Amino acid sequence: MRMGVPCIACFVRQAVETVQRATDDPGLQLLVMKEVCSLVRDVTPGTTPPDFAEQLYSTVYRMTGNLDPFHADKREANALVLGLEPGLRKEVERSGDPLLSVIKLSIAGNSMDLGVVREYGDVGGIAERVLSSELALDDYESLVARLRSADHVTVVGDNNGEVVFDRMLLEQLRRVRDCRYTYVVRGGPVINDVTRDDALEVGIDRLADVVDSGSRAPGLVLARCSEEARRVFLDADLVVSKGQGNYESLSDAPREVFFLLLVKCGVVSHDLGAPVGRAVVARHSVDG
């Protein structure tokens, strides 16, 4: 997905919020923002939001010397969802379709994106709303059909907090098809996205091999991924991509991908054809 003009305003906002987290020095904040704004001059028609985001966040982190200004926010996100987990597990187990229910929960977890919101909000309320709503785009049955014959499933993670829901998702996927699973994370801290350490902290490694992308882009940008990350993405029998950032980088991927996300902005809404605020399970196929 290519950047739209509204993306530029969104990224300036993100830069302001991030630099304020990264340093209390107003003079340095101004210098960083001037440098970030200069990056806009190099945006081309082919630039994707994660492409630009990697440049933006790298600039903030490098100039402030703070390489993980969202560290405390990530811990908070995981603690919040771990507290909700026992009750949500009961809802999943008593539902008519536990896999569909946990997919919806993992999509609700995609609301915990500090590139979009300033605070996590009522995650439990969002989870209940998504659980009780129809999907705006519904390729769930196609996903299940692919899953039943898969020998290798790759799940591309997105945010902290959401990663706890993803652990529940992996458990349910394994109940349907017990095969090899790989969970792909970011190559280093960026926003509140999930890294290898974050995934290990919540026990993802007990259910899947954890592979980092080799890049700090807040999306799986294949051109900048490690060889291992590209291989587990391209060679898997089924790829499940979590979140909006991964959609922005993989919407034109050279293989089938199932996108699980909340639509959180007008640009993505227009691209997907689904309303802002709605949950989608959307299949992308190179053969249409």
Describe the fold and architecture.
The protein has 288 residues and is an alpha/beta fold. It has two domains: 5-64; 71-284, Uncharacterised protein PF01937, DUF89, domain 3 (Rossmann fold). Helix content is 50%, strand content 12%. The protein has twelve helices and seven strands. The protein has helices at residues 5-22, 26-39, 49-64, 71-93, 98-108, 123-131, 140-148, 162-176, 196-201, 227-235, 244-250, 266-272, and strands spanning 137-138, 152-156, 180-185, 209-212, 238-242, 257-262, 279-284. Strands 1-7-6-5-2-3-4 form a seven-stranded mixed beta sheet, with helices on both faces. Helix 4 (71-93) runs parallel beside helix 8, helix 5 crosses helix 6 (123-131) and helix 5 (98-108) runs antiparallel to helix 8 (162-176). The chain is globular. The two termini are 16 Å apart.
